[in-house]
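TEACHING EXERCISE
Course module: macromolecular assemblies
Task: Read the component lines below, then compare them to the predicted structure of the full complex.
Student: A.B.
Group: 4
Components provided:
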Amino acid sequence: MRRPRGPLAGTLVAAVLLTGCALGSVERPGEKAAERVGSHGSADERGVGAQPYRRWGLEAPLPPAPKPAARPPATRTAGPALPPVVRHIRTPDKVVFLTYDDGAEKDPRFVDMVRELRLPVSMFLTDSVVGPGYGHFARLRSVGASIQNHTLDHPALRGLPYAGQRAEICGQQNKLKSRFGVRPRLFRPPYGTYDTTTLRAAADCGISAVVLWRASMEDTGLTFTQGGSRLRAGDIVSVTSGEATGLTLVERTARLLREVRGKGLTVGRLEDYL
Ligand SMILES: [Zn+2]
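Instructor-supplied answer key:
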């Protein structure tokens, strides 16, 4: 993915990046998600009782994530300097990072998947999308997911005044702190669009890194924004919600995990590297 370089480039990038956010497509009501889960067949057909990795469509378990080196605190705290914008982590570890945006899809099977496969996923939540559904994300958090900031109302921040950007970011920091007891350190701007004002507002709200993505898991498979078209160690992957005719998050995640496993990679915890 490219960083916006001007008004026109920003528009183009915004259009390209739209796919990274579920709000760029169709938001699926919870009922439909439940119907789709029900269409996956009976418990026996899904292999309940088998090894967890088989139950989720993997031929072999994912390797355990390596312990990352201790991070130097001086470079990891939000201070006067602007937070870094990252879409790929430079690391010798054979890990990729799974990120999910908005919080529209609240499929209980996804909680089971995260728990059984011990997936350290990162959820970037928008308050107006999650709505009354924070309980689902509390359950996800209790099984190992981390909760991060994706604004209150999902506007395209680029070009907005400081006060408005700050209200979107700090407002969601406060919401998430009151819901979960911790303030997120990571922030993803909606549609991946941002400007220097965004970075300044994010820093002032206590954000230590702005997280974009290099790869996106779509219905058609993985797409890449820059730097080659194959999954590699350190990639941050955005797993988007399916459109009306698309796959559920569980299905997309399972498909992605097969690719991850096939490349000899595993899933790392993004927060351990930022
Ligand atoms: Zn989004």
